[in-house]
């Protein structure tokens, strides 16, 4: 039995229909879906709506937006530094392996 993936738009349409009718089983039967799947989509839809409303209430000031952007930039810089260190470490280890066992370098390339 193949698994069918539904688009986000379809899931939202189903969730809105459940909200209007207040009957998830009926909507599931109408669209030939599992009632538990429809219930999960509706629960995720409601949770997402609450999260969006909460975010709008707390993050309306430009100061919050800038501080969030600054923290993302700092995290990005830290991650770039880590990647650079790991790359350098890999190069050093490759050179070491090349000097000690040149016949193994064929497999590493």
TrEMBL record:
Signal sequence residues: none
Pfam families given in the database record: HTH_Tnp_1
Positions with biased composition (Polar residues): 59-69
Taxonomy, superkingdom: Bacteria
Residue intervals passing through the bilayer: none
Start and end residues of each stretch annotated as Disordered: 53-76
Stored SUPFAM superfamilies: Homeodomain-like
Designated name of the protein: Transposase
The organism of origin for this protein: Pelosinus baikalensis
């Amino acid at each position: 039995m193949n698994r069918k993936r539904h688009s986000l738009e379809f899931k939202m349409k189903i969730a809105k229909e459940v909200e209007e009718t207040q009957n998830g089983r009926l909507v599931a039967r109408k669209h030939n879906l599992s009632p538990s799947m429809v219930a999960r989509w509706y629960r995720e839809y409601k949770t997402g709506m609450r999260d969006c409303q909460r975010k709008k209430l707390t993050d309306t000031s430009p100061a919050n937006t800038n501080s969030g952007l600054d923290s993302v930039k700092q995290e990005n810089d830290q991650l770039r530094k880590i990647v650079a260190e790991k790359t350098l470490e890999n190069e050093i280890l490759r050179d070491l392996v090349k000097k000690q066992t040149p016949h193994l370098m064929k497999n590493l390339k």
